[in-house]
Specification:
The complex is a heteropentamer of chains A (681), B (167), C (501), D (547) and E (106).
Chain B: H1 3-24, H2 29-49, H3 53-78, H4 91-115, H5 129-137, H6 141-162
Chain D: H1 2-7, H2 9-33, H3 41-65, E1 74-82, E2 87-93, H4 95-114, H5 123-142, H6 146-155, H7 157-167, H8 172-205, H9 240-254, H10 263-270, H11 273-298, H12 300-326, H13 331-350, H14 355-386, H15 402-415, H16 422-437, H17 439-464, H18 471-474, H19 481-499, H20 502-528
Antiparallel strand pairs in D: 1-2
Chain E: H1 4-24, H2 28-52, E1 55-56, E2 59-60, H3 63-93
Antiparallel strand pairs in E: 1-2
């Protein structure tokens, strides 16, 4: 492999980092705020450059022969300790193979667009004089961490990015920290993610330990992939009373550990709770971090570790089912939400559930495919929503919108594209990726795969329903906004709109890179033997779904059902919110309980609070701190001893010292008698 | 039972009685002092019976002649022929002490009665002036010197403590 | 016919010099106090006092010098070969030197103090010297006659000194208690001696040692009573109760003097008796000492916790230290005994220093007693506070001070002899001791001054003494066996001599 | 000159601070004698600071000259001190001591600089005590003679005691005395154990000695050659179990391990900023260092035997410390309890008895020194401005003091072990090492990572974010130049260790491996043979001779 | 011939009586006297024992009697000082009751 392209890799993450560091130093050590144009030029420039670098690296990668598409740029040994068969060593090294290549492109590309978008979006944010620079500092830092996560060549480095993006999302969610709620959401996101990281760490330990036992101690992906067979039937001994005891297969346990991490990042049940709250951050953040890139890290990780999951069927089943349940659960919540960003947030959760389900079913390619398309259209939707919010002067409640379609026409059109894409209408990217996902689910051997497929379909219907609901409520009907708002309604400036156009374009065409044979047969006329170039590209690194024996007819049928579900949902939305706008209220009234439940997201937050948080705090305070620490140890043991000594003196011995010479003499006589008595015996 | 023995027991009885008298007479200090004299004298008698003539002489001279007189002198000086004190404190303690002392006494007597060997015949002039004098100024000359120092210290001390002029 | 004894007067030299000093002081006072002027300068009481102190100190230095020379020579000689009663050997010489030093420092302390308390009588120095001579006699004696005589010669002046501040009730009381209990104790001691004499037919330690065995119960009673007598002097529980009262009531400088020298004497003499006279019974004795040590350590430390009078606190602490010293006796090994010797020297420095500070702080005829009047001392008298802290730290046995080396030696010896239980008790109790020793620096450094008394300077004598003690504490703390001053070796050699090793 | 310095580098580093301190003291003492005022306070402060900086430069020289691959002790100096007791002046360092020394000398100037303004009362003694303290700590870290170690170990208490007691908060006296007594309690029992070991070694070799190892170029018997009987081979107080228990108690109190930790919150809360920095940064490491250098090497069997207990206590410490920290209202107290948790990690690593764990443990000692030190600095800065440390008195501080908030943020992140900051590497290695031997323990400990994030971020949020409610917070001034410099100085190593820990790991690892080797060697010793017969060979003098 | 064991017994009796006096009487003067009594008891013992050991390896041995002489001297000195103390105390508090002398305690 050529040196140049390899050394190139390091610059992909480093460029944004340098920008971030520059901003940081400026913020910290220079009192005078940096001019805004310098700020955005640096940030966008660095990300743009790293996008170009990524493209170049991609081209280098493609040049390589199919089997050996891997670029590694090793900087230095980061952490090395231990000897012999337990020698642990993690390199500071970046590796690019097809999967990471895809995600790198998405991250840098979409990232770049969103950076540009942010210029306009943050323009009018005057809450603090340095806020603008601070925002871009965080944004660059995030890009860096995300790229480290993607390009890491070993688990530990991946974990670095993993935590890094968590930190950045914490910072960005709480960007407007002066509002107590934002700060709360920030720390909530970080802590919930930490719970996931807990799993991730354990996974690393578990794999390393057993690889070490097997004589191949390493956490580098390539080595692990080679030696994974060694662990195929390794197992952990656990007490017999434990479920599934007395022996747990290592890989399953490890897979579950990592999946816990994935749940944290990709907002799966039961750890999804942070994502909706994450909408407290500025909209570009929601678009970049909480829709396009970071939240997909979990899915990416599962695909990265696909060699583990393929050997861990039980764990995979858990993954698949968790994904499915998350998908429908979140979708159901989304129905009742009225905050435009909340709706999108829950849709994100549900879409992530889709991807996770696919991954669990072994459809890694499908998962990655949907990940890619989703990145485009969800970013589009968020940015569109952002545009709307800008236009509405930071009003997010769709109940106060409506009828915007001819007031902000451009925004309206791009938003519609996004909606169609996510709803999976034929021709749009979402259609193909969703199709792939459902197909992989349909053909997988996960227990209850039919059910999964069913859930997928229903979710597709619901998705399309609430997306159209959102669309209609926002852009159709008569405008419910205040008068003065209504009068100033207009499309946002260019710098905001242009990224939208680009994204809209990709939301339409992105699907065609992964054109299934069933539809893409015709391309053979043009000499391409397989239309699904995406799958081809990933095939060497991802275990492909075994060629299903389904006839094209079946495929068409499945696709038709999916599309039908989507259409049904759309029509229902149209009926309810355009044709008979008074109905929803009545339905809500008749199903008050259910509606209320949905409105309050099944009270999950409240339940967690009551079951975990409060008890923990109370016990720590009342029992541990006041009881054990202050009461038992200090009060009883320590000061108790002091009291005993003191009391022994001041209530006992003291009175022997009565000051009367003769009592002293008495004690002397006693002593003498005792002594003499002992001596004589 | 030979004469010395009889005399001894007489003296012993006298000594004990007068000693008890000294300790038990809580009314009259002078009486206590006088009974102390009696004890001293009777002890001197016993010394004589044991051929310790010099010691006996000193006993009478110093104790009877000097020390007890000093006592009496002080009693007169401070004018405490009769001492009426407020009721005693820590009675129980004292009683216990007394009881214990008696116990010790019994024990002592038991032990001592067995361990004392028989008295050998005495050499010529034992305890006589010559012997004692020579011993004091040859073997024990150091003691004489130091005794002088001791008395000096006592004099100085007594002066310091008791002289009227408080400066 | 009478043959004149061949006397070796050099043996008497240390004692003799001190005695001579005493008499000269007395004469000098008489001479000086009647004249108005001397060599042209007008005679004040303070001047007289310092002159007499100078005389006393001069003779003490002489005796110190002689003792050192004798120790260096390593020879041992008896006063009267026909009838040896005192013997000046390296052991006696070392202890004598220590005693002379103690007396010297006390005299130096006294100069300013007596004037300050307006009890500036020359007799003070005479009595100190006489008592010192008695101590020297005790440590040199190998016969109960001289021992008893020395004991009385030591005690009687101290009875007087305790009551030296006649106008103060507390001083009277302390003198009285000390006298009654003291003479009671010495009566017990005497009776014990009588029994020992009865058992052995001689008053010399050697003969007693030969005759003594556990089966002879008269001898054992005698032994017991003698031990009681000494236990009183070293204030071992339960014979300790006089100590706090007497130390508190007596004038501070006297307390300083007696708390050090008397203890040194008693321990040294006991050491000699244990090796010479009571050699046969050490198994039994070590049990006795075990109990005494344990009781003493516990009671001393625990009682000190609740004191709010600095002198009383130091009294109890000295009781506790007696307990630690007894550990050395428990072991009955060379290591233990030499540790005791070292400890005694260390104790001289730290305790004399601590009391020296108390002495220094007395002013306007008032003793310095209340703990809480130490508050904020560091602000007013930083130097004084610093040395006081040093002495407290040393008494507590924190490393870097001589106190630690001393304690270390004792504990090491105890462990070597297998008395771990006692050692553990000892260290636990010294945790307690740390608590009350630390209260002093706490008050001096961490509290604001309660009453802003004017700061009067430290008199030269006091300054010298404190500096000397402080230096001693630090120097021996770091170099207990320095190039020129091998204190450890000295202690051990003297003890080994005692064992005839 | 240069080679002279190199020959006595350790002694230089150790005694230079105290030397200067004493000189300063003498100067003012002399000027007091002639009635002068002595040097002015600012000069004292400056000189003290310069001294610590110079010491730090010396220690950098040490770091550079240290041979990473060498397992034996380096820069050894050996000279007789108290020959009767076999006490020698014996210093030398391996990788572990090196880390401790460098960390100490690094934190010292920072502490002084941080307390530049907030120590107004009796500056002279303050400077002196700080210098005194530095010598005490360094001495303990370089001592290879058990007696000498004990001396430094205790001497160190005195300056700390005064620093807490004189310049501390309202309950300073209670805190100071408690601190002193706790430590004394443990260390005096340790003294007894030391004496027993001393006695055993004498019994077996006939030579009185406290040297931990034989000085280079001599095969004199040392404590490391001493057989220490196992339970059942001798009376209870001679057995490894009890001796180790005594050592462990002393060290555990210092660490502090639950349940001996209650002195720590009090001491921290009352101590002045600099005091807390040093206390957390260095003094706590004494305990863990003691375990590494003396505890486990002298009594390998017992330490292995007691590992479950200690691991358990460490876990309790981690979880318990975190939970209690979570509910503190006082920031300083919170940090104090977080120290309990962090040191729990260190103990966990040490008692994993494998390279990762122990290396991580040592590294974590350094990390905790830096991070927690920095935390205390920051709290101190806030306290200096507002004279309160209660969380509810703050809120929205990030608004008036953005730079401060940024520094605080970075430090918090390093303290909760964010990757690429120092905390992570140590924690990871510890957990990895633990997982290799006690997976379950590692799982529990890892949950501590989550809790750490919980309490730290909760505190951070309540202090920094939200609206500014208390008006007096609105006009808080941001960090000044001095404070910025201090923070930069202490934050840079965080990133350095986080990004490139190799130079440290490379130096630590051989020492750790050597310790394990010694442990193994000594472990087989007592089992192979019961305590040997007394040899009474070349005894200087027989301490157990009876008359 | 005087029965020596009874001599010793007598001394013991006197000794204990002395102890009783010291331990129970409140009059300082009497306490001093009791101490004297104790010393006398010791003297008696010495003389008696000297009667038992008149000769040690051939030569007459007078340790006991010498001791008695010394004790008598000491006694004189003690009494002098003791009475001095009593007087100075009496001057200050006008009483010889030992139980009123308890300022210093605890």
């Amino acid at each position: 492999m050529t040196g140049s392209s390899e050394d190139l890799l390091r610059w992909i993450p480093l460029l944004p980092l340098m920008a971030a560091v520059y901003h940081g130093v400026m913020l910290g050590l220079v009192r005078r705020p940096t001019p805004r144009w310098v700020t955005w030029l640096l940030s966008c420039g660095s990300v743009g450059l790293s996008f170009l670098a990524a493209c170049y690296a991609m081209s280098e990668l493609v040049k390589l022969p199919e089997g050996s598409r891997l670029l590694i740029d090793n900087l230095y040994t980061w952490v090395g300790a231990g000897v012999g068969s337990q020698a642990f060593s993690a390199e500071m090294a970046f590796a690019m193979d097809p999967i990471s290549a895809v995600l790198t492109l998405i991250v840098t590309g979409v990232g770049f667009l969103i950076h540009v978008y942010s210029i306009g979006y943050m323009e009018d944010d005057q809450r603090e004089d340095k806020g603008f620079q601070r925002f871009f500092c965080y944004l660059n830092l995030f890009t860096f961490s995300m790229l480290v996560l993607v390009l890491a060549d070993n688990l530990l480095l991946m974990f670095v990015g993993w935590e890094g993006v968590g930190l950045c999302s914490y910072l960005l969610i709480g960007f407007w920290y002066a509002d107590r709620f934002n700060a709360y959401c920030g720390s909530k996101a970080f802590i919930v993610n930490r719970i996931g990281d807990f799993g991730f760490l354990l996974g690393i330990f578990l794999l390393f330990t057993h690889f070490a036992e097997a004589g191949a101690p390493s956490v580098a992906f390539t080595d692990m992939k080679q030696n994974i067979a060694l662990l195929a039937n390794a197992s952990i001994a656990v007490p017999a009373w434990m479920p599934f005891g007395p022996e747990w297969p290592v890989l399953d346990v490890a897979a579950l550990c990592f999946f816990l991490g994935a749940c944290g990042k990709s907002a799966q049940l039961p750890l999804y709770v942070w994502l909706p709250d994450a909408m407290a951050g500025p909209t570009p953040v929601s678009a970049l971090i909480h829709a396009a890139t970071m939240v997909t890290a979990g899915v990416y990780m599962i695909c990265r570790l696909s060699f583990v999951y393929t050997l861990a069927p039980d764990a995979s089943a858990v993954v698949a089912w968790t994904g499915a349940l998350t998908a429908i659960f979140a979708a159901s919540i989304a129905i009742a939400q009225t905050d435009i960003k909340k709706v999108l947030a829950y849709s994100t959760v549900s879409q992530l559930g889709y991807m996770v389900m696919a991954a669990g079913c072994g459809g890694y390619t499908a998962a990655m495919f949907h990940l890619g398309t989703h990145a485009f259209f969800k970013a589009l939707l968020f940015l569109g929503a952002g545009a709307v919010i800008l236009a509405m002067h930071h009003e997010q409640d769709i109940e106060k919108m409506g009828g915007l379609r001819n007031r902000v026409p451009r925004t309206h059109w791009v938003f519609l594209i996004g909606v169609l894409a996510i709803a999976g209408f034929p021709g749009f990217s979402g259609f193909f990726s969703k199709d792939e996902v459902l197909l992989s689910v349909f053909t997988s051997h996960v227990p209850g795969t039919r059910w999964l497929h069913g859930i997928g379909l229903v979710t597709a219907g619901i998705t399309s329903f609430y997306m159209f609901r959102l669309y209609f409520r926002t852009f159709w009907g008569e405008c419910r906004a205040h008068k003065e708002v209504r009068d100033h309604l207009q499309d946002p400036p260019r710098v905001v709109m242009n990224p939208l156009y680009v994204l809209a374009f990709f939301s339409i065409v992105a699907g065609f890179v992964g054109l299934p044979q069933a539809y893409g047969g015709w391309v053979q006329n043009f000499g391409v033997e397989d239309s699904n170039s995406f799958a081809n590209f990933l095939r060497p690194v991802l275990p492909a779904i075994e060629p299903h024996g389904l006839s094209h007819a079946t495929e068409y049928g499945l696709a038709a059902i999916a599309v039908g579900a989507a259409t049904l949902g759309g029509l229902l939305a149209w009926f309810l919110y355009v044709r008979r706008p008074e109905l929803p209220a009545r339905i809500a009234a008749s199903l008050a309980g259910f509606h209320h439940t949905l409105l309050n997201k099944y009270w999950v937050d409240e339940i967690y609070d009551a079951l975990i948080v409060r008890p923990l705090v109370r016990v720590s305070d009342r029992v541990l701190f006041r009881g054990v620490d202050a009461g038992l140890i200090d009060g009883a043991a320590v000061n108790g001893t002091a009291r005993i000594v003191r009391g022994f003196a001041s209530h006992g011995l003291k009175y022997a010292q009565s000051g009367l010479a003769q009592s002293y003499i008495f004690f002397m006589i006693v002593g003498a008698a005792a002594l003499v008595g002992y001596l004589v015996r | 039972m030979s004469a010395p023995v009889v005399l001894f027991y007489a003296f012993a009885a006298l000594a004990i009685i007068s000693a008890l008298g000294m300790v038990l007479n809580v009314r009259n200090t002078v009486a206590s002092a006088l009974s102390l004299v009696v004890t001293m004298v009777s002890l001197a008698g016993i010394y004589v019976l044991m051929e310790a003539h010099i010691v006996a002489a000193f006993q009478i001279m110093v104790y009877g002649g000097a020390i007890v007189v000093l006592f009496l002198f002080v009693v007169m000086l401070l004018n405490l022929r009769h001492d009426e004190f407020p009721p005693a404190r820590q009675r129980a303690l004292k009683l216990a002490g007394a009881g214990l002392a008696l116990l010790v006494l019994v024990e002592l007597l038991r032990v001592l009665s067995v361990d004392v060997p028989e008295a050998p015949p005495l050499p010529e002039g034992f305890g006589g002036y010559a012997q004692l004098g020579i011993a004091l100024y040859t073997d024990y000359v150091l003691l004489v010197e130091v005794a002088g120092l001791l008395l000096l210290a006592a004099i100085v001390g007594a002066l310091i403590l008791a002289k009227r002029r408080i400066d | 016919m009478i043959k004149p004894p061949i006397l070796d007067l050099s043996v008497l030299a240390p004692i003799g010099f001190v005695a001579i000093g005493a008499m000269l002081v007395l004469i000098g006072e008489v001479l000086l106090s009647r004249r108005k002027t001397f060599l042209g300068r007008e005679v004040t009481e303070a001047w007289i006092g310092s002159v007499l102190a100078m005389i006393a100190m001069f003779w003490l230095v002489l005796s110190l010098y002689v003792a050192c020379v004798t120790f260096a020579a390593g020879t041992s000689s008896v006063f009267n070969p026909d009838h040896p009663m005192i013997q000046l050997d390296p052991f006696a010489a070392l202890v004598t030197a220590v005693l002379a030093l103690g007396a010297l420092l006390s005299c130096a302390l006294a100069i300013g103090y007596l004037a300050e308390l307006r009890i500036n009588h020359g007799e003070f120095y005479a009595l100190i010297l006489l008592s010192t001579s008695g101590m020297m006699l005790m440590v040199a004696s190998i016969d109960m006659l001289t021992l008893f005589l020395g004991l009385e010669l030591m005690s009687i002046p101290i009875y007087v000194l305790a009551g030296f501040d006649r106008r103060k009730l507390r001083s009277n009381e302390s003198a009285l208690k000390y006298f009654i209990i003291g003479s009671f104790a010495s009566a017990l001691l005497l009776y014990g001696m009588a029994l020992l004499y009865g058992a052995s037919g001689s008053t010399s330690f050697a003969a007693i040692g030969a005759a003594l065995d556990a089966s002879n119960s008269m001898a054992m009673i005698g032994l017991g009573l003698v031990l009681v007598g000494f236990a009183f002097k070293i204030s071992a529980v339960p014979f300790h109760q006089w100590t706090p009262d007497v130390y508190e009531g007596a004038p501070s400088v006297v307390t300083a003097f007696m708390s050090v020298t008397v203890k040194v004497t008693a321990f040294a003499t006991l050491l000699r008796m244990l090796t010479l006279a009571f050699g046969g019974t050490e198994e039994t004795l070590s049990h006795v000492f075990w109990v005494l040590a344990a009781l003493t350590i516990v009671v001393g430390n625990v009682m000190a916790v609740i004191q709010d009078n600095i002198k009383r606190l130091l009294a109890y602490s000295s009781i506790a230290h007696a307990g630690y010293l007894l550990i050395g006796f428990v072991t009955g090994t060379i290591a233990g005994y030499s540790a005791v010797m070292f400890y005694l020297v260390a104790y001289l420095f730290m305790n004399l220093g601590a009391f020296g500070v108390v002495v220094t702080l007395a002013n306007h005829g008032q003793e310095f007693e209340r703990m809480d009047s130490l508050a904020g001392l560091a602000r007013r008298r930083p130097g004084l506070a610093a040395v006081m802290t040093l002495f407290m730290v040393s008494l507590a046995g924190i490393p870097g001070t001589v106190g630690f080396i001393a304690k270390f030696g004792l504990f090491a010896a105890a462990v070597n002899a297998g008395y771990v239980g006692l050692t553990i008790l000892g260290v636990l109790m010294s945790v307690v001791s740390v608590y009350y020793y630390l209260r002093v620096p706490v008050l001096m450094y961490m509290h604001e001054p309660t009453m802003e008394s004017e700061t009067l300077g430290v008199s030269t004598g006091e300054g010298v003494v404190l500096a000397f003690c402080a230096v001693g504490v630090l120097f021996f703390g770091f170099f207990p066996n320095g190039d020129n001053l091998h204190l450890l070796d000295w202690a051990r050699d003297s003890v080994r001599f005692l064992f005839g090793a | 000159m240069g080679e002279l310095i190199d020959a006595h580098l350790l002694s230089m580093i150790t005694f230079f601070p105290l030397g200067v301190g004493v000189l300063l003291l003498l100067s003012s003492g002399l000027s007091a004698l002639v009635g002068g005022e002595g040097l002015p306070d600012p000069l004292w402060r400056a000189l003290g600071f310069a001294t610590t900086v110079i010491t730090f430069l010396f220690s950098l020289r040490l770091f550079a000259a240290f041979t990473a691959t060498e397992t034996a002790y380096q820069f050894v100096e050996h000279a007789p001190w108290i020959s009767d007791y076999g006490v020698n002046y014996f210093v030398g360092i391996d990788g572990i001591s090196l880390m401790m020394v460098v960390m100490t000398t690094f934190l010292m100037p920072i502490a002084l600089a941080a307390s530049w303004t907030d120590i107004a009362k009796s500056v002279k003694s303050y400077v002196f005590f700080m210098l005194f303290l530095e010598t005490g700590m360094l001495g303990a870290f370089v001592s290879l003679n058990l007696f000498q170690f004990y001396v430094f170990w205790e001497v160190m208490l005195i300056p700390m005691y005064f620093i807490i007691g004189i310049w501390g908060g309202p309950r300073r006296v209670y805190a100071a005395v408690k601190f002193f007594l706790f430590t004394m309690f443990g260390s005096l029992l340790m003294l007894v154990a030391i004496l027993v070991v001393y006695y055993l070694s004498y019994q077996q070799t006939g030579v009185l000695g406290f040297d931990l190892v034989a000085p280079p170029g001599s095969d004199a018997p040392s404590l490391m050659d001493t057989l220490i009987p196992l339970t059942g081979q001798a009376v209870w107080w001679k057995t490894q179990f009890w001796l180790f228990a005594a050592f462990a108690l002393a060290f555990a109190i210092k660490v502090p391990m639950v349940p001996f930790h209650t002195w720590l919150p009090d001491a921290h809360v009352e101590a002045p900023t600099a005091g807390s920095v040093i206390l957390a940064g260095v003094l706590l490491k004494m305990g863990t260092y003691g375990f590494l250098r003396f505890g486990i090497t002298l009594f390998p069997n017992a330490s292995v035997e007691l590992t479950p207990l200690l691991i358990g206590l460490a876990l309790v410490g981690i979880v318990y410390g975190s939970l209690v920290a979570m509910v503190q209202g006082d920031i300083k107290k919170l940090v104090a309890y977080s120290s309990v948790a962090h040191l729990g990690f260190v103990m966990l690593g040490i008692f994993a008895f494998n390279v990762q764990g122990m290396t991580g443990g040592v590294l974590q000692m350094v990390n905790h020194g830096i991070s927690t030190g920095a935390l205390f600095l920051l709290v101190g800065m806030l306290y200096e401005r507002r004279h309160t440390r209660m969380i509810e008195d703050f809120g929205g501080v990030a608004k008036p003091m953005p730079v401060y908030a940024a520094c605080f943020g970075i430090v918090v992140m390093s303290s909760i072990g964010l990757p690429l900051l120092n905390g992570f590497v140590g924690e990871f290695l510890i957990l990895l090492g633990t997982f290799l031997v006690y997976p379950l323990a590692a799982v529990i400990a890892t949950s501590g990572v989550v809790l750490a994030a919980a309490y730290m971020l909760w505190m951070f949020r309540r202090v920094m974010f939200g609206p500014v409610e208390h008006p007096e917070n609105r006009k808080l001034i941001d960090l000044g130049l001095r404070e910025k410099l201090v923070m930069v100085t202490i934050i840079v190593p965080m990133f350095w260790i986080g990004l490139y820990p190799d130079p440290l790991l490379r130096r630590i690892e051989p020492a750790v491996i050597e310790i394990q080797r010694v442990m193994e060697a000594r472990r087989v010793m007592p089992e192979s043979q019961a305590a040997a017969e007394p040899v009474r060979a070349a005894a200087v003098w027989a301490p157990e001779a009876r008359p | 011939m005087v029965p020596l064991d009874h001599v010793i017994g007598l001394s013991a009796v006197l000794f204990v009586i002395g102890i009783l006096g010291v331990a129970t009487r409140r009059n300082l003067i009497v306490i001093l006297m009791s101490i004297e009594l104790m010393l006398n008891a010791a003297n008696l013992a010495f003389v008696g024992f000297n009667r038992i050991w008149p000769v040690v390896d051939g030569v007459a041995h007078l340790d006991g009697q010498i001791f008695v002489l010394i004790v008598i001297t000491v006694a004189a000195a003690e009494v002098a000082v003791g009475l001095g103390i009593v007087i100075s105390l009496f001057r200050n508090r006008d009483s010889v009751n030992v139980e009123e002398v308890s300022l210093l305690k605890w």
